[in-house]
Design brief:
Helices cover 37% and strands 20% of the residues. The strands form eight sheets. A six-stranded mixed β-sheet has the order 1-2-4-3-5-6, sandwiched between helices. Strands 11-10-9-13-12-19 form a six-stranded mixed β-sheet. The chain is built from 23 helices and 28 strands. With 671 residues, the chain is of the alpha+beta class. A hairpin with a 3-residue loop joins strand 21 and strand 22.
Length: 671
């Protein structure tokens, strides 16, 4: 009638619970705004149009409820949405977590779709086929999804396309998964399922013809277990070998080697480490991470000195104390064995409370003002930026200069093994002194009982054998890169008892590699790195760069009068009084000294370089001789051959045969 009240009066939750054995709480609050909106539409249609669409709307609503909640299906096929938890509204996230066991941790929305899809299947034979990311097979968030699949289904087929790029516009490492509902445990344990693993990487600048070839090969050979070519591998895998930890699907020949490495390893990384941890999050690297205008004039932990710095990505110069500066590695700086440091530092406004402490003490405002006034002034200049971090989290904070997430900073000043987060090959570097801080990397701290094996463990982690093992359990990224983090490093097997004498050669080879890399780094820092024990008198050449070339490409130029200069392109000519000598050969050596100091350096137009140079010609000659000797030693060190020796030693540790080694190396040629 005309006086009908079109407002919602409640009762939905009670009625829903009358029709299901599962109790739903919060339904009333969740649906009330939608119900109100629906009633307003109904009111409009009824009062303004008396429209038949009113009944169609109710019909569609009831039909959707029946189709989704009261029917079972022989087949469920779909391509669920891939949505990370961070992109789901809080109220929706809470509801999904309440309804689905697969919505655990940092889940992706496609995981609950597996659970819901399996619930729709008829008992004893219904089939589900989904295209989803393959990540649920190896990530922590996929553990409950793996468990539900194993408990409820026969796995019939898995097509893992990895990072191949065969699906245009899809960059989520797709897999096709076909499951059959089966409640009989023995049937599940006796099940072998078909796997197709794509080998070809067609991701970047994809060749569509190659994509088509991959698809055609899958279609043609999917029923040929044991088949393999340059595009795909086809094999059967026993469901009984799968657990909830991770699914490493591989042909039997690879599985045998994988299992052998597990058997021969007497420990896992999680057994011999105190922690595998990421770096701190400053929340504003543009403030905390700085470039020292001349990185050669500073050593970490220098006390009572000041230095000129430029904030990361900025141009303005500031003067601050060196006491709070620590060497900072970016992700690309972390390399095998040693780093290639860009020269950046981080301002660390904390005092460590010592080993074993769970927190680090933020340096107070009063201490900063009294002991580090230049650093405090620097923070004040950037106060607005620091307060506005993370949507204004520090707007009202009394400690607005703190890091966003310090991450137990005392760990960074202990000996550790640092490794890159995303890389296409193992990149474990030794930090024997506890020097380096970082963000986009991880580090492993060996437990006290195992610290004497730091080099041996690093050799194993960088070896072909354990790269092979790791790449079977880690998530693959675009372009053949893999994700190195705690979840995947912790399970890696390692050998801690040397029964065959392999540790000695490994340690010796690693020492030669590290020495050569360190020596090469010293050469790059000529002449400053060669002046630590120099007690003679020095002059200083100061030069402001004009070139836009980056890095410097220098050469020594001489004229008919026996004068020598150092030139870089057309705009930079270094010819300083400190380069002069009465002797022609000495003048040439001084030019060669300056050339060695600037060639290859990263400079910017307007930047000033200060080059220390000995006053005595004999000292210049002596330093150049040391430089030449070091260059020769580096040139004579064959790092590739030394790494091959380490690989052989690790093969011996795990008792791998020649045939097994060939399988490993063939695999690493592809993956």
């Amino acid at each position: 009638g005309e006086r009908f009240d079109w407002t919602y009066k409640g009762g939905l939750e009670e009625r829903v619970n009358n029709y299901t054995s599962q109790h739903y709480s919060g339904v009333e609050e969740f649906f009330e705004p939608y119900v109100d909106d629906m009633l307003e539409n109904v009111r409009y249609l009824k009062e303004e149009h008396n429209d038949g669409r009113l009944f169609k709307m109710f019909e569609d609503t009831v039909l959707a409820l029946v189709v989704k909640n009261y029917m079972e299906y022989d087949y469920v096929v779909g391509n669920p949405p891939y949505v990370n938890i961070q992109n789901i509204r809080d109220e929706q996230k809470e509801m999904i977590r309440h309804l689905y066991d697969t919505a655990e941790g940092q889940f992706d929305l496609y995981c609950p779709f597996y659970e819901r899809g399996l619930d729709w299947l008829v008992e004893g034979g219904g089939k589900l086929g989904f295209i989803t990311p393959n990540q649920f097979m190896v990530t922590n968030y996929g553990e409950n999804t793996r468990e539900i699949i194993l408990q409820k289904t026969l796995i019939r087929e898995i097509y893992d396309f990895r990072d191949s790029g065969v699906f245009e516009d899809a960059t989520n490492y797709p897999a096709i998964v076909i499951l059959e509902e089966e409640s009989n445990q023995k049937t599940r344990e006796d099940n072998d399922f078909r796997c197709v693993r794509v080998r070809a990487n067609t991701d970047e600048d994809s060749d569509r013809e190659l994509d088509k070839a991959v698809i055609e090969s899958v279609r043609e050979h999917r029923d040929d277990p044991g088949y393999g070519d340059e595009l795909i591998d086809v094999f059967d895998y026993p469901q009984s070998k799968l657990g909830t930890d991770y699914w490493a699907l591989m042909p039997q020949r690879e599985q045998n080697i994988f299992d052998k490495i597990e058997r021969k390893g007497d420990k896992r990384m999680r057994d011999i480490t105190d922690a595998i941890f990421p770096g701190p999050t400053t929340g504003a690297n543009s403030v905390y991470v700085i470039e020292v205008t001349d990185a050669h004039q500073i050593r970490s932990h220098d006390k009572g000195e000041t230095v000129t710095v430029i904030p990361s990505g900025g141009t303005e110069e500031f003067e601050i104390e060196t006491d709070l500066l620590r060497p900072w590695l970016s992700g690309s700086d972390v390399q095998r064995w040693r780093c290639e440091w860009s020269g950046n530092h981080v301002i660390l406004p904390y005092t460590s409370l010592g080993e074993g402490s769970r927190t680090d003490q933020l340096i107070s405002k009063e201490t900063l003002q009294e002991q580090y006034p230049l650093t405090w002034n620097y923070f004040q200049i950037h106060e607005e930026e620091l307060r506005s971090r993370q949507s204004g989290r520090w707007e009202e904070s009394e400690n607005w200069w703190e890091f966003a997430y310090p991450r137990n900073l005392e760990r960074f000043e202990r000996p550790k093994t640092v490794f890159a987060h995303i890389t296409d090959e193992p990149a474990f570097m030794l930090d024997n002194e506890g020097t380096w801080y970082f963000k986009t990397a991880y580090a492993a701290l060996l437990s006290e009982n195992w610290q004497n094996l730091t080099e041996e463990i690093a050799c194993q982690l960088n070896s072909n054998a354990l790269e092979y093992y790791f790449k079977h359990i880690s998530t693959v990224k675009a372009g053949g890169y893999y994700e190195y983090r705690a979840q995947y490093v912790n399970p890696i097997p390692c050998v801690t008892e040397d029964g065959g004498g392999a540790f000695g050669p490994m340690r010796e080879a690693a020492g030669e590699i590290v020495n050569a890399i360190d020596l090469d780094s010293k050469i790059d820092r000529f002449p400053e790195a060669y002046l630590g024990d120099f007690d003679g008198q020095l002059d200083y050449i100061t030069y402001e760069w004009q070139t836009r070339r980056y890095p410097v490409n220098a050469e020594v130029q001489g004229d008919v009068d026996g004068e020598f200069t150092v030139q870089a392109g057309r705009s930079d000519i270094i010819n300083d009084a400190a380069m002069y000598s009465d002797d022609r050969e000495a003048r040439k050596q001084r030019a060669q000294y300056v050339y060695a100091a600037v060639d290859g350096r990263n400079v910017k137009s307007g930047e000033v370089s200060t080059i220390p140079i000995p006053r005595r010609d004999s000292d210049v000659e002596r330093l150049l001789d040391r430089l030449a000797s070091d260059r020769q030693r580096v040139a004579e060190t064959d790092i590739e051959a030394l790494e091959a020796e380490i690989d052989e030693a690790v093969y011996e540790l795990f008792e791998l045969t020649d045939d097994e080694r060939r399988v490993i190396e063939d695999y690493l040629e592809v993956f």
